[in-house]
Amino acid sequence: MNKRIFFLILLIFTKLLFVNAQDFHFSQFYDAPILLNPALTGSFSGAQRANISFRNQWAKIINPYETYSVSFDSRLSGKHSRNGYLSVGIAFMKDKAGKSDLATTQGLVSLSFHQRVQKDGYLSGGLQGGMTQKTINYTNLAWDNQYDPNIPGFDLALPNGEAYLSDNFSYTDVSAGVVYSYESSERAGDAIDRLNFNLGAAYYNFVKTDKSFTVLYNNPMYPRLVFHGKGILGIHRTSLYLVPVFMFQKQGPHREIVLGTGLKKELIGKANFTGLNRAPAFTLGYLVRTGDAFIPYISIDIAGFSLGISYDANFSDLKKASKRVGGFEISLAYINLGSKGNNNLPGRNYRRN
Predict the structure, then answer these.
(1) Is the pTM of this model over 0.85?
(2) Is residue 327 pLDDT above 60, yes or no?
């Protein structure tokens, strides 16, 4: 029954076509969990988790886009932690793009609560707040007032004639999200039949902010709505799993849809299998950002660490300029399992949840 529900919801979102990319994004979006949904704060198997992501996009274009993120979240243990618990997290993100060094720097704090609602299911809610700063460097840009017909060309030493420009502005942001997590597994020898999934929604930019780099007018900051899901579906009597994922987000006129699946192999043996799920594993898979890129990826899980590598092969109209070179992305996560009691959590088998 739960498998049918998961695939039905996944099918609904695959019907949404076409995409316009947001200002920044990660293809491995589940490896930046706090940026994906505040309710994912603390939704993992263990006591503490750290995530690092780096993305280099369109390297064939001058001054490629680069995005970094670092996050840390922790479960706050309590007397009734078996039925519900509180988690906190922090995240930092920086995005730098283009000849103007257009940069976005963001610092966030998250708080979430996870409540058991059935034997194998948790309902989580999260809140997030922080500051965002945007900066720009005009010195490398050429303006029409700097054109010198005697060269002919642009003389950047000439005044640009733009009197109403600012090189930075900042604003606060508040967001909220919910996630439902379900997990059921049964072990038979070295094989495990498993059904894990989570489904979530998040809403960003509760605080209305209309700002831009010019004082003459303000650009509207649209709210951003995100839906996402991930599953780990055990193939009967094997140590293989299907790992389908999807994400849909909409901000004003812009939409982004990413979906795909992976095949995970868990290396289980009598010596390395434990109740804390320390068994090493690797996953091969692909994602598609509709209308934009095909994204193969590989991930390796070992001793609490998870390393993910992906590459965006661009097939949109931008391929003429990018020479079909998209974005290289790498992520690294570490989960400190802590005590055995921390294994009784939602998403405890989501190695990179």
Answers:
(1) no
(2) yes
